[in-house]
Design a protein that fits this description.
Length: about 425
């Protein structure tokens, strides 16, 4: 991360904030700074600004005024995405505003720092895509796919407010339950899921799947290897389609092979996360995987290369090999063996056992990249903005004033330090 990266330099979209609450305005600025430059006005402008693609409107309880403003925004700013910031809940207002054409509603203060995630998921749903699917894959075993997938899924759980599921397809013997310290539990498995596939609705699926203490849902491999014989590529696709209907993010830990099951996962993935370690054999395996994705016609934008166990001083030849790979997004996760090993021994996630480690921060940023669709410079700028904001004098005052005025307890979904990139 460098000081030369600025929010202004990378913001490509224009947004307008309509309201007068300075505390919420400051929080919104921090939350969307990586993707939007924000103009604040107290009233709907008579002449709509050019190039504004997003409008955020305060609702403080005055239904008539808010509906009038909504009508004006949607009339003047044709095609603009309008979201309402709910300082107070009013079911009748929400129903009427939704009928008028409001894209979504953001609760204040609880969801303010997750605006980008909310916008991204709403956009996907309008396109009929529902939840994101990210598959962690390597043709070479032992590079840390399971550790990365498990710990990253825990960060996505926070980003999606508990609507993330981790699927273990690292056949025949997956280790996600080991990393989650759930190996002694009776876990809901893939074969259980298939058996109940036609019975699922939104209530049943959340009650059926195993759940880690962090809130992460888990779909594990069956304990009997013979049960895997009934699984095939089409059935795997059906499972993924079903999961993405109910979950905002599906994380899959794939096997290190090119079986029909693995290829079916990659076919359904929005993000194909190729994991490598800094070695010639690992890079050769990744290069083979990249060529495979080109042959199969996968979108290049879906490919992300994660260089795991990355050292500050890499071999120059290896660095040149990374640059020569035909992939646009390269993410590095630091070589922190002690932190990962300690978390595994303790049966705790990295964010709980070593929250201040560089590797944990990098995984948090990667989770934002996969879920929010932010580019790497945007991730860095967002993290830098939040860091600066936490140091600014308005940040602690903002938190206390918002909680006091809204009368909301400091829960996991509230605006607190845990919600912020640290």
């Amino acid at each position: 991360m460098t000081n030369s990266i600025t929010t202004h330099g990378i913001a490509q979209n224009q947004a307008i904030y309509i309201g007068s609450d300075e505390d919420i305005l400051e929080a919104v600025k921090v939350s969307i700074a990586s993707k939007y430059s924000l103009e604040a006005v107290s009233e709907v402008p008579h002449v709509w600004p050019e190039d504004v693609s997003l409008a955020l409107l305060e609702f403080d309880g005055d239904v008539d005024v808010a509906l009038e403003r909504i009508n004006s925004v949607l009339t003047l700013g044709k095609g603009v995405s309008l979201y309402v910031l709910l300082k107070r809940k009013n079911v009748d207002f929400i129903i009427e505003a939704n009928h008028q054409g409001v894209q979504g509603f953001i609760e204040c203060p609880g969801e303010v720092l997750h605006i980008l995630s909310i916008l991204h998921m709403q956009d996907r749903r309008r396109q009929g895509k529902n939840g994101n699917v990210s598959s962690f894959f390597s043709l070479k075993g032992g590079v840390g796919c399971t550790a990365l997938a498990t710990n990253l899924a825990s960060h996505l759980t926070e980003l999606t407010d508990g609507r993330t599921v981790l699927v273990d397809l690292n056949m025949p013997l997956g280790d996600t339950s080991l990393y989650l310290n759930m190996e002694n539990q009776r876990l809901y498995s893939l074969t259980d899921f298939v058996y109940n596939l036609n019975r699922f609705d939104e209530n049943l699926i959340y009650k059926s799947l195993s759940r880690h203490e962090s809130g992460l849902y888990v779909l594990s491999l069956p304990s009997e290897v013979s049960e895997l014989d009934n699984l095939n590529g089409e059935l795997i696709k059906t499972i993924i389609h079903s999961l993405r209907r109910y979950y905002d993010h599906v994380v899959i830990d794939c096997a290190s092979d090119l079986s029909d099951l693995t290829l079916s996962c990659l076919d359904e993935s929005d993000n194909i996360v190729l994991v490598a370690e800094p070695s010639l054999s690992s890079f050769r395996a990744v290069n083979t995987a990249i060529k495979l994705t080109q042959t199969l016609g996968y979108l290049k934008d879906s490919l992300k290369l994660v260089l795991n166990r990355s050292a500050s001083q890499q071999d120059e030849m290896l660095e040149e090999m990374v640059k020569d790979m035909d992939v646009d997004t390269v993410v590095r996760v630091s070589n922190d063996y002690r932190a990962f090993n300690d978390s595994l021994k303790e049966g705790r996630l990295l964010k709980d056992s070593h929250a201040d480690s560089i590797a944990n921060f990098q995984l948090h940023s990667l989770a934002n990249l996969l879920h929010n669709g932010a580019s790497l410079p945007e991730m860095e700028a967002q993290a830098e903005n939040v860091k600066r904001s936490k140091q600014n004098r308005w940040w602690p005052v903002l938190k206390q004033r918002m909680f006091k005025r809204m009368g909301e307890p400091k829960t996991n979904g509230s605006l607190n330090e845990k919600s912020v990139v640290s």
